[in-house]
Specification:
The protein is an alpha+beta fold. The protein has two domains: 231 residues, Rossmann fold (3-Layer(aba) Sandwich), CATH 3.40.50; 123 residues, OB fold (Dihydrolipoamide Acetyltransferase, E2P) (Beta Barrel). It is built from ten helices and 21 strands. The strands form four sheets. The chain has a six-stranded mixed β-sheet with strand order 6-7-8-3-9-10, with helices on both faces. Strands 13-12-11-14-20-21 form a six-stranded antiparallel β-sheet, with no helix packed on it. Strands 15-19-16-17-18 form a five-stranded antiparallel β-sheet, with no helix packed on it. Helix 3 crosses helix 4.
Length: 364
């Protein structure tokens, strides 16, 4: 039996708004699970239902096989880290970290031992006497994390804990939270809208949209085997490119570009979409500039360069393919001139096909 089991979980507010629809998920003990999706997709609401801060309208939530729908946050033995840190401004770092243990009546010697050990792990030893206002954003976030992990509970819940940090601090805190998870072995559920955080930290990712789960899987699976256009476009930076075209006589045309569907798709798929619109998807890094003869087993497309962004290790090339905008991610030494006409190839093995109506992945 899984450690956490969510079956048919729904959240319906009194005004009738249905925030979470039929959420089903099993989480093993010690897993690091990330809920990811755009604002308003239901990820934080789901986390708050797990924490006991929101009631569950329908469905059942089990912890270690026991129903906890009616139990409060303290009875569920969870620790939560909020986006706003939620530190007590009048208390020192030491007092903020020890507050929960003090309320539990833990002996002062034990509290001191736990605080010092936790502060050492988080690099806060020299800041224990300071107030939150005297700390940087990254230091305040470490205090919030420390206050959670010091309780030694089995479940950590984190609601966009890095969103208030700058880019450099987020990178540092990502690695620190991942390391803390390895050391504590606690089951962790982490909410973010940042797909980079999801990809780099998660054992498994839950992608949500409009209150529904779109796909659950390991980062590799979501990146290379997305089930629909939403997942394909949300996971990856820059996102996957999509080109729509109607199929006629087994081929689809994008202006002067004609692509034979049968070269990379099964005959069954080609026949099924005859006379219909399909969506060709490819990731920016899989495009290869064509300088001479076209590489074998590839689709070749002509386009116009609209903008280039040199990022050091690569260049993002923004292109126009007969009115469709896309992005190529190429070697910076091959950066083309703006407004120039270029050709690029997409190897067959990196082409995705989606149904234009359902947006589901047809074939990869």
């Amino acid at each position: 039996m899984s450690y956490l089991t969510l079956t048919g979980i729904n959240k319906i507010y009194p005004n009738g708004f249905h925030a979470v629809h039929n959420f089903n998920l099993e989480i093993e003990k010690g897993e690091f699970i990330v809920f990811v999706g755009p604002s308003g997709c239901g990820k934080s609401t789901t986390l708050r239902m797990i924490a006991g801060l929101e009631s569950i309208s329908k469905g059942e939530f089990l912890i270690n096989g026991k129903r906890v729908n009616e139990k409060g946050p303290r009875e569920r033995e969870v620790a939560m880290v909020f986006q706003s840190y939620a530190l007590y401004p009048h208390m020192s770092v030491y007092d903020n970290m020890s507050f929960g243990l003090t309320l539990q009546g833990v002996d002062e010697d034990v509290i001191e031992e736990k605080v010092l050990a936790t502060a050492k792990v988080l690099g806060l030893t020299d800041y224990l006497d300071r107030k939150p206002r005297e700390l940087s954003g990254g230091q305040r976030q470490r205090v919030a994390v420390g206050r959670a992990i010091i309780r030694k509970v089995g479940i950590f819940l984190m609601d966009e804990p890095l969103s208030n940090l700058d880019a450099k601090q987020r990178v540092t805190m990502r690695s620190e939270i991942t390391q803390i998870h390895r050391e504590t072995g606690a089951t962790t559920i982490y909410v973010t809208h940042d797909q980079t955080e999801a990809m780099t930290m998660a054992d498994r990712i839950v992608v949500m949209k409009d209150g529904y789960i779109q796909q659950v899987g390991k980062p590799y699976d979501l990146y290379f085997n997305p089930v629909n256009m939403f997942v394909a476009g949300f996971i990856g930076e820059p996102p996957m490119n999509f080109i729509r075209a109607g199929v006629k006589n087994g081929s689809f045309s994008i202006g002067s570009n004609t692509v034979n569907l049968g070269d990379f798709a099964s005959k069954k798929v080609a026949d099924r979409f005859e006379g219909r619109t399909v969506v060709l998807g490819f990731r920016p890094e899989h495009a290869v500039l064509v300088k001479g003869s076209a590489p074998a087993d590839s689709v070749v497309l002509k386009c116009k360069v609209e903008l280039t962004e040199l990022l050091g290790d690569n260049t993002n090339v923004y292109i126009d393919i007969e009115g469709t905008n896309s992005i190529l991610k190429i070697d910076p030494h091959d950066t083309p001139e703006m407004d120039s006409e270029i050709s690029f190839a997409i190897p067959y093995k990196y082409i995705y096909l989606f149904d234009n109506e359902t947006e589901e992945c047809i074939e990869k």
